[in-house]
Amino acid sequence: MTDEPLSPIDHIFTGVGSYPIEFVFAYDGTLDAARLEDSFVEALSHFPVVRSKLERVSDHSFVFRPTDSGASFETTTTSRTFEDPDARYAFLDSVDTVEGEPLTKVKLTQTPHGSVLGVSMSHAVVDGFSYFFFLASWARLYHGKTILPPHHERSLLIPDRPARAGDVTPEDVLSECGVFWTERRESIAREQLHWDRLSLSEQEMGALLREAKRECDTRLSYNDVIAAWLWKLYLSRWQDGVGGGATYLSCPVDFRRIVSSFPRTYFGCAVTLATARLDYDALVDTSLGLLATKVRDVVATVDEEYVWRGLGTLEALRKQEGLSVVEENHVIHPRDGILVTNLSRLPVFELAFDVGPPVTFDILTPAPRGAVVLPASDGLDIRVCYSGGDSRPPRGR
Fold first, then answer.
1. Cβ atoms within 10 Å, residue 153
2. How far apart are CA 178 and CA 66, in angstroms?
3. What is the pTM of this model?
């Protein structure tokens, strides 16, 4: 594979302070390390961008340059087990999406209770769909099965439109992309991150939905209600009761099904941001139903025109300011926001190697003020990441 250009949204996830997508998967049995590594190498031949490094090709653009050192596979052993939450980071080797660094790292750890597979991939290389597309394809290749061919043409997302008139402003970036152009991002210190784990049973989810529907006549989904609930629950605590300022909720939207004729097997980052704003005092006083309606309405604004306009704005911004501006772009407002990603339909059962699918897993993506909605046996398992500077983590509903 030759060099592959980064799309405008890919560039957002490069540089200092850009977080990779990271999971660790625990298996009830010992995975065959040699066979696993061989099939990983085979998977890379189908997904060559996974074994890439960033290469600067202009003042405003990177490319992915495939290289044998662009992806690593490490095998190790430990006496610690997956049941020890303090050991989770030991099962992972994290990538940094900066020039010259590998953009994928896989770590297989043999423990007394079975194998743990940790996979860190640059968010510039993959979104949530592509991350699991690669892992599920790897598992199929492990068993000698065929895979669905991925579509790699990232130039599809570089807009072929006339240049916009005038300079791009922070207000343009927010209204047209859902992205915040503000102070330079800082590196993410994992030792300063905290994680909350909130469990919502099917019964509790139903109660939240009924509460929201009592307050409005709008047709609402669980996604609308849970995002609104998390927005209010966390911002009221992170702001520590200080009113007067704006708060923001950001929701990633996969546009594979929104952009006409776009390949469903596109391998890359095919997300845009739907971002809602509400002053703190209004957030505290607004009912769950009205908040959920606001979430639904904001997500509904993401149509094909919004996608292309946003990509064009991000492209124009880099050409205006240079590559360094990507480190001033935030998909989560760093002081007054929360991002809620719904991954409640993860195909974890497809990640089956010689000992079957994972018996449990954990997400370790270091995204301060990021919440991820994951599947559970009875409802949902919600993880919220925040830094030590955010006060008073919630205790539940």
1. 12
2. 31
3. 0.95
Residue with tokens 């790699």: 152
Q: Which pairing describes strands 104-111 and 114-121: parallel, antiparallel, or unpaired?
A: antiparallel
Question: Nearest 5°: CA angle at 357, between 354 and 361?
Answer: 130
Distance CA 133, CA 287 (A): 38
Positive or negative, the Cα torsion across 387, 173, 275, 303?
Answer: negative
Which 8-state DSSP code applies to residue 187? P
Contact 291, 251 (CB under 8 A): no
Report the C-alpha gap between 122 and 22 in whole angstroms: 9
Q: How many residues does the chain have?
A: 397
- The DSSP element (H or E) to which 230 belongs, if any, is helix 222-238
Q: Which two tokens stand for residue 29?
A: 């049995």
Query: What's the CA gap between 277 and 389, in Å, rounded?
Result: 22
Alpha carbon distance 341, 372 (integer Å) = 5
Please give the single-letter amino acid code of residue 184. R
Tens-digit pLDDT profile for the chain (397 aa)? 689 999 999 999 999 999 999 999 999 999 999 999 999 999 999 999 999 999 999 999 999 999 999 999 999 999 999 998 888 999 999 999 999 999 999 999 999 999 999 999 999 999 999 999 999 999 999 999 999 999 999 999 998 877 777 899 999 999 999 999 999 999 998 889 999 999 999 999 999 999 999 988 889 999 999 999 999 999 998 987 666 689 999 999 999 999 998 999 999 999 999 999 999 999 999 999 999 999 999 999 999 999 999 999 999 999 999 999 999 999 999 999 999 999 999 999 999 999 999 999 999 999 999 999 999 989 999 999 999 867 544 444 3
Q: Are 98 and 56 in contact (CB under 8 A)?
A: no
List residues bridging with 199 in a β-sheet: 381
